[in-house]
Amino acid sequence: MAAPKRFPHRPLPTLALMAALLLLMAALANYLIHSGPETSSTASPGEAGTHPEPSKPSQPKPLAEFTGNESCAGCHSEQHLAWQDSQHAHAMAHATADSVLADFNGTHFDYAGIRSQFRQEGDKFLVTTDGPDGQLTEYEVLYTFGVDPLQQYLIDLGGGRLQVLSIAWDTRPVAAGGQRWFHIYPDDELTHTDPLHWTGPNQNWNFMCADCHVTDYRKGYDAQTQAFSAQWSELGVTCESCHGPGSRHLEWAEGQSWPDKGLTVLLDERRDMHWMHELERVTARRSKPLATDKEQQICAQCHSLRSVVTEGYHAGLPLLDFYRPELLVDPLYFADGQQREEVFISGNFAQSKMHQAGVTCSDCHEPHSQKLRAEGNALCSTCHSPVEFDRPEHHFHSASSDGAQCVSCHMPERTYMVIDPRRDHSITVPRPDLAQQLGTPDACTSCHTDREPEWAAQQIVDWFPQGR
Q1: What is the model's pTM?
Q2: What per-residue confidence (pLDDT) applies to 199?
Q3: How is residue 445 annotated by DSSP?
């Protein structure tokens, strides 16, 4: 889930790009005309020339099709079961008594002078709120959107347009401040004329959200009618979102002799390798270098801030042929590379020493359940010696405190969508001295909010007089 912002629009360089493509096509045509198969000047009509016959191209393997997650469950039951409880599986669902987590029992929420009311009628979940014209109108909720720590709701405004309601349900426990309605733009007082209003273009599911909440999404946009006829194979982020269409793999499982097992992409970055611990090193290293970035590209299709260049991407295809990821620029990132706006992890991680060392997403995250492979400092200790790092002489905090957790100092949180804290994956060391110079956040004063960066910088000097 993402909360769109008001950023300056930076269009693709359309005219320059078209001119470059035309020049390239002209050069290619000229090359093909003048370098085609030559014939001998003395050859008779129908007689072969002096150049050999070109070899026949190999037959392309048939394209795979999407088959659905249930077709995977028979052979991959353990992975399928783990996935069923994941946020990926619940990224989007039909609005039913099982999927809707909010209280639609005659509740209401006030925002910008509008009282929105929520009720249930039989199997239908209904909301009365301000529509595109600013008038109170009752709408049916068709889909749920996300599950934790918040859930949003999708409404059909006609023309195939699904819009994301900006009033969301806080799914956290009551003790954590949850089980309530809230607005994801609490300070903006949005009205129906604002593009960020739930009926506006910046809250349009078809354009802004869909390809990361369903599998095999096709927009089906008609520019003349400005309508959508969207299609997808499944709701949610399913097996084939990450493994690609699976029909050829099913054929292989049923006896077809595909040499690649019929897989669209082989995710083998962690196969036949381990993280080696050596006596002279306090940090493990891969037993063999990371040879591809297939896994990170697949994760980055959604875990990056990017714009769509063209439709048709599926796992295994080159990411940059279909998407244009945003670079490390203001206002998306702070001057030191820390996340500022909602950039979805990939841009942070690409800066990290972990990335340089060959760490991949699945080294830390079990990809089917999405759970961490270990809890707390135990996860970091799989590579970083706990004797060296998980001790007060390194972190200078009580062992039972939050400050003793590796992530508190090296992956500080920043909260998005009001209640959704996300950790910075650039995985840096605290530098309050730089933060002081650059005016950026630092991990120390993010926790010690009553202190200044100067204090934090001096603490680091006192703790590490010889440097780190």
Answers
A1: 0.86
A2: 98
A3: H
Q: Vertex 137, ends 132 and 139: CA angle to 5°?
A: 95
Tokens of 186: 């609490």
Could you tell me which residues come within 8 angstroms of residue 381 by beta carbon, excluding any fewer than 6 positions away? 374, 389, 390
Count the alpha carbons within 13 Å of 268 in the hemisphere toward its beta carbon. Answer: 9
Residue 224, classified by CB atoms within 10 Å of its CB into exposed (0-12), middle (13-18) or buried (19+), is exposed
pLDDT digits (tens, 9 = 90+) for 427-441: 999 999 999 999 999
The position carrying tokens 């934790």 is 148
What three-state secondary structure class fits 76? coil
Contact 311, 219 (CB under 8 A): yes
pLDDT digits (tens, 9 = 90+) for 24-34: 555 554 544 44
- CA–CA dist 182, 419 (Å, integer): 10
The per-residue pLDDT for range 216-231, each reduced to its tens digit, is 999 999 999 999 999 9
Res. 5: pLDDT tops 80: no
The alpha helices in 321-375, defined as continuous H runs, are 346-349, 353-356, 361-364
Predicted confidence (pLDDT) per residue in 380-398, tens digit: 999 999 999 999 999 999 9
Task: Reduce the secondary structure of 20-52 to three states and give it as a string.
Answer: HHHHHHHHHHHHHHHCCCCCCCCCCCCCCCCCC
Gap between the Cα atoms of 91 and 147, Å rounded: 7
Q: Where are the domains of the chain?
A: 85-235, 238-267, 275-428, 429-468
pLDDT at 44 over 60: no
DSSP characters over 236-277: SS-HHHHH---HHHHHHHTT---TTTT-S----TTTT--EEP
Q: Which of 154, 276, 146 is nearest to 203 (CA)?
A: 154
Separation of alpha carbons 177 and 292, rounded Å: 43
Count CA atoms within 13 Å of residue 146 on its CB side.
Answer: 21
| Distance, CA of 426 to CA of 431 (rounded, Å) | 13
For 198-223, what is the mean pLDDT?
97
- 435 near 336, Cβ under 8 Å? yes
Distance CA 241, CA 212 (A): 9
The type of residue at 406 is: C
pLDDT given for residue 38 in this prediction? 37
The whole-chain average pLDDT of the chain stands at: 89
d(CA 5, CA 332): 10
CB atoms within 10 A of CB 341: 18
> Does residue 376 or residue 1 have the better pLDDT?
376
Closest to 99 (Cα-Cα) out of 68, 118, 125? 125
- Token readout for 351 is 């800066």
